[in-house]
Amino acid sequence: DCAHYEEPFMVNRDTGGTTTFVYDDGTKYGFGLTPETEAPLGEGALCGSIGATSGDKIILEYFGDLDAVNADPTDPDALDLQNRKLKHLQNMKYSFWVQSCPDGVTTACPNEFYLNVYARKSATSTSPWYDCRFDFVPTEGGEVDTWTEFDLYDIKNIVATRAYPNGSSTCHGATTIQEYIDAVTTNDTTDAVLGNMAFFPFAFNIGDSAAPDAGVSGCYDDLRIDLNDEEATRVYDFEV
C-alpha cells in the first residue's frame, strides 16, 4: 500500500530512511496526494511528514518521462531532461504549505522545503553520481498554515544557497548555475548538462537529513519548469 511513484515523480526511492511513507487519507502521517481546498492550483496537493526520527527526509525526485530510465543515454531525445544542456534551464517555481515545523520551532520553517538541481560537466561524465549540485533554499515565508510561492525566475543567475561538488568533481568555484556553465566551457571544453546518474535533474525536499527535522510536515503544489528551448511551461498540479 506504499505510495511510491507517480510519473513524472518518484517519492523516496532511496530506502535508507526510517520514516514510513504511505498515501495520506487526511488523517495519517506519510506522503501522498491529499485534498487541500486552499492549494494554489486545483484542489489537491502532494503532502508528507517526518516522524520522530530526526534526520529523515522526504525526497520528491523529478524524472520527467520515466521511459528515460531505460533509454539509450546517447539519444538526448529519449532522455527527456536528463543530459539536456544546462543552458536551457530558464525558470523554476513551486509552492509549499507548512503544516508543522521541526519540534521546538513553532512559527515558520521555509528552509525545510528546498530544491536540488543536479548538473554534470558533460553527458559522458564519469562521475559516479553528479559533478555539481545546486541547492536553492527559501529564506522567507514558510509560516505554519500558509502557502508560500518560491519563484526562481532566471534561475541560472540566482546565487545558490550551496553549490556542492560530488567526490573528486568540482563546481569550479561557481555560486550560480551560469558561472558553472561558463567555467565548464572554459576548463573542460564541454557543455554542462542537467541530471545525475540516477536520471533525475531535480529533487524537491521536505526535511534535511543533516539537521534536526522531526515533526516537519507540509505539502507541494503548482511546480513549474521553464526551458528556453520549449514553448510551453511544464506545470504540475497534484490532485487526488
What does this structure look like?
- This protein is mainly beta and 240 residues long.
- It has 1 helix and 14 strands, in the order ββββββββββαββββ.
- The two termini are 16 Å apart.
Main attributes of the structure:
240 residues; mainly beta; 8-stranded antiparallel sheet; 6-stranded antiparallel sheet; 1 helix; 14 strands; 31% strand
Computed over alpha carbons, the radius of gyration is: 17 Å
Number of helices: 1
Q: Give the oligomeric state of the chains in this entry, treating copies of one chain as homo and distinct chains as hetero.
A: single chain
Tell me, briefly, the overall form: globular
The main β sheet shows up as:
8 strands, antiparallel
Query: How many strands appear in the DSSP assignment?
Result: 14
Q: Level of helix content? A: under 10%
List the helices and strands and how they pair.
Layout: E1 5-6, E2 9-11, E3 31-35, E4 44-49, E5 58-62, E6 89-100, E7 115-120, E8 132-136, E9 147-152, E10 162-165, H1 177-187, E11 193-194, E12 202-206, E13 217-227, E14 234-236
Antiparallel strand pairs: 1-2, 2-5, 3-4, 4-13, 5-12, 6-9, 6-13, 7-8, 7-11, 7-12, 8-10, 13-14
